[in-house]
Write a structure and sequence with these properties.
By secondary structure, the protein is of the alpha/beta class. It has 16 helices and twelve strands. Strands 3-2-1-4-5-6 form a six-stranded parallel sheet, with helices on both faces. A six-stranded parallel sheet has the order 9-8-7-10-11-12, with helices on both faces. Helix 3 runs antiparallel to helix 16 and helix 9 packs across helix 13.
Length: about 400
């Protein structure tokens, strides 16, 4: 089959896990024998594509998240959440040239998400959409503009035609409440880990080793680490280290660590590639993931747990829906709760902790291996309704363009 995958960013352009998932989906579908084309935005931070890919990447979409334009906020919100005429034109050309059997939407935030969904429905597709986050966030915020768009373009019907692949109830409920439209949900999809991972490393006795691997930003909980470490030291618990990996507010973080006298316990270790970070997780007892409550999923807990690194995560996030108390420690998002979970691992006998790490690694590798879940996604794509006969795509595009100009004028 011919699959068209649409994503606002695509490797080597990467902000987080969403782009990596899109890449893996394209790669695995191509490996399974399908013809795959990717529609995404141009390279900005890299000079060349990844070499020898088994699929074709078309960088013809315009992503407002990387826009250097200085539009007024209303225009930027309109293009981001509602409709970008240039992207509909680019998509029409690609559909005509590639003639896909099915379409898979990934992160379409910033591409004029509602316009893309409506256009695809009008030219006969019932796409699948992988919901790793609320890709309709901008449309959810601007209620008046959204309602006008729905009336003019019949977007409710188009949204209901989507076959949704949400990563959690958290993200699905947020989208449905924001759009006030129920979405079809044939399959919840978790985070996944590579099929082949090296054997687990047994930890020797010594201080408990914790790791933080995410963006160094307040919503990811980076400042909670400092407060939790201070609380542990105040209680006389000295036998721990926290290694921090990632980009973001690095200078401010390092400055605060040293200002609090925590340099002996919290160490910034820079940024690692995904593969290198996967291997690094084997050396740690626990992952600290005190991210904000609306985290749609969080891939890091899956990757860490597969390597025997016990996730300590915010109890309300998407990943927490997939992990039981056997596989993780779920906490409220505050320094005392985080410190308490760290203490529980620090005080656990080494043999008991190692048995737990081994059990978690085995469970996660079996339940969340990539081939299992991508095979299920392939089945959903293969079972989508065939494209319906409609008026030609050029006519649909021209109608949407005319309607938009009248509306905006």
């Amino acid at each position: 089959m011919r699959f068209l995958l649409i994503s606002n960013l695509f490797p080597p352009e990467v902000i987080g896990g969403y782009e990596l998932v899109a890449f893996e989906l394209a790669q695995h579908l191509a490996t399974l024998g399908h013809e795959v084309a990717v529609a995404t935005s141009p390279l900005v931070n890299h000079n060349a594509e990844i070499a020898d890919l088994p699929f074709v990447v078309h960088r013809t979409m315009f992503y407002t998240g990387l826009s250097l334009d200085r539009l007024n906020p209303a225009d930027e919100a309109f293009r981001s959440g509602m409709i970008q005429l240039a992207n509909i034109s680019a998509l029409r050309i690609l559909v005509e040239n590639f003639n896909p059997d099915q379409v898979l939407l990934c992160n379409i935030a910033g591409l004029g998400a509602l316009g893309l969904v409506t256009f695809l429905a009008e030219i006969g597709f019932s796409p699948a959409i992988y919901l790793g986050d609320n890709v309709f966030n901008q449309a959810c915020v601007d209620t008046g503009m959204r309602e006008a768009f729905f009336r003019l373009f019949g977007a409710t019907k188009a949204l209901r035609s989507l076959r949704c692949l949400p990563v959690s109830h958290t993200v699905l409920e947020e989208i449905q409440q924001g759009l006030n439209v129920p979405l079809a949900c044939p399959l919840f999809v978790p985070g996944w880990v590579p099929d082949e991972l090296p054997p687990l490393v047994c930890r020797e006795s010594g201080p408990a080793r914790f790791v933080f691997s995410s963006r160094l930003a307040p919503h990811k909980g980076i400042w909670l680490l400092i407060e939790s470490a201070k609380h542990l030291l105040a209680c006389g618990d000295m036998e721990f280290t926290i290694d921090v990996y990632g980009g973001g507010q690095v200078p401010e973080f390092i400055q605060r660590v040293h200002a609090e006298g925590l340099g002996g316990h919290i160490r910034y270790q820079g940024m690692l590639s995904r593969d290198t970070m996967l291997n690094a997780f084997r050396e740690y007892d626990g992952l600290l993931f005190p991210t904000w409550r609306r985290e749609p999923l969080g891939l890091v807990p899956f990757e860490a747990a597969a390597q025997g690194c016990i996730p300590i995560m915010t109890a309300q996030i998407g990943a927490a829906e997939w992990f039981t108390a056997i596989d993780s420690i779920k906490v409220e998002r505050n320094p005392l709760a985080l410190a308490g979970a760290m203490q529980s691992l620090m005080m656990m006998p080494i043999a008991e902790r190692e048995a737990w790490r081994q059990r978690i690694s085995t469970n996660v590798r079996q339940r969340f291996n990539a081939s299992r879940w991508i095979k299920q996604i392939e089945q959903v794509l293969s079972q989508l309704p065939p494209r319906r006969p409609t008026v030609d795509a050029q006519t649909v595009q021209d109608t949407m363009f005319s309607t938009t100009r009248i509306w905006r004028d």
